[in-house]
UniProtKB/TrEMBL annotation:
Gene Ontology BP, a term: purine nucleoside catabolic process
Species of provenance: Amphora coffeiformis
Gene Ontology MF: a single term: purine-nucleoside phosphorylase activity
Transmembrane residue ranges: none
UniProt cross-references to InterPro entries, sorted A to Z: Nucleoside_phosphorylase_d (IPR000845), Nucleoside_phosphorylase_sf (IPR035994)
Annotated protein name in UniProt: Nucleoside phosphorylase domain-containing protein
Stretches assigned to the Nucleoside phosphorylase domain: 22-272
GO cellular component, one term: cytosol
Length: 277
């Protein structure tokens, strides 16, 4: 869906020339100005609803700062429209012969789920379990019967998590799992605690909060935080990594699932502003 006058995608209001290959995603539109304040120059700005875009240069590297608003429904818009702006010809509506690959790094806030994770510390989402359901609307390689290790690990992690929580409420979305892009996890991994992020499809009930309405599973956070998963790549014990559940947030799963399915690198890093332990 394009603006007819400008050939820019509908919600983000960008075309290929407006977007850098390196994109910092934030939730709050006000944070875009805080990121862009570090740029040496700014060459494109757009504001439409919760989607604020500023592209500029920082120490010789062109970077885009973009606000997504809250939730995986917004990430569905952001990831699809970014890829469309870069990789689909607006005149022919055909996929370009050469595809641009994006580096998508989400900087956000979250609630920690372990007692030893301190407020204001950084959590790096090495893996994510999504409760939102967005990825289930797409056919992706991660959902195929391929024997690729990452695909097998994704399916295995989600299945083990459901068994751990047992019983998984029948009316809840089936969780899906994804891993961070290895190149980004390796590069930024020293910046914080690694773990499994839980992407919720709401702020209150889906994260175990209740004001007046009772919860289907009142002790859900206690069940969730006790889950661990071992990523055994190729059954080589030397490469086995064990992760625990570390935090709640509301965007990571759709970013990883859709971004990686479209060929982009993705990583989420969040500051813990509360501890839900």
């Amino acid at each position: 869906i394009l603006h007819a006058e400008t050939n820019r995608v509908y919600h983000l209001n960008v075309k290929a020339a407006d977007v850098a290959d390196y994109i910092i995603l934030v939730g709050d539109p006000a944070r875009v100005d805080r990121v862009a304040a570090q740029f040496d120059s700014i060459d494109y700005t757009s504001v439409n609803r919760e989607f604020v875009v500023k592209t500029g240069v920082y120490q010789g590297l062109r970077i885009t700062a973009l606000s997504t608003g809250i939730g995986c429904d917004n990430l569905d818009i952001v990831v699809n429209e970014l890829d469309a702006a870069l990789n689909i010809d607006p005149e022919t509506r055909q996929v370009n012969g050469t595809l641009r690959k994006l580096t998508l790094i989400r900087l956000g806030t979250c609630g920690a789920l372990q007692s030893d994770i301190q407020i204001d510390s950084t959590i790096v989402s090495a893996a994510v379990l999504g409760f939102d359901g967005v990825a289930h609307f797409y056919q992706t390689d991660h959902d195929s019967d391929s024997t690729n290790d990452n695909k097998s690990n994704n399916n295995d992690m989600a299945t083990q998590f459901m068994s751990h929580v047992n019983p998984w409420p029948v009316h809840w979305n089936r969780p899906y799992a994804r891993l961070a892009s290895p190149v980004l996890l390796q590069h930024f991994g020293d910046l914080g605690t690694h773990g499994i992020t839980l992407t919720a499809n709401g702020f209150f009930g889906p994260q175990g909060r209740s004001i007046r309405l009772p919860l289907v599973m009142p002790n859900m956070n206690e069940r969730f935080r006790n889950f661990t998963y071992s990523d055994d790549q190729g059954n080589n014990n030397a490469s086995k990594t064990t992760w625990r559940v570390t935090n709640f947030e509301m965007e990571c799963s759709a970013l990883y699932a859709l971004g990686q399915a479209l060929g982009h690198d993705t990583l989420t890093m969040c500051v813990a502003i509360a501890n839900r332990y």
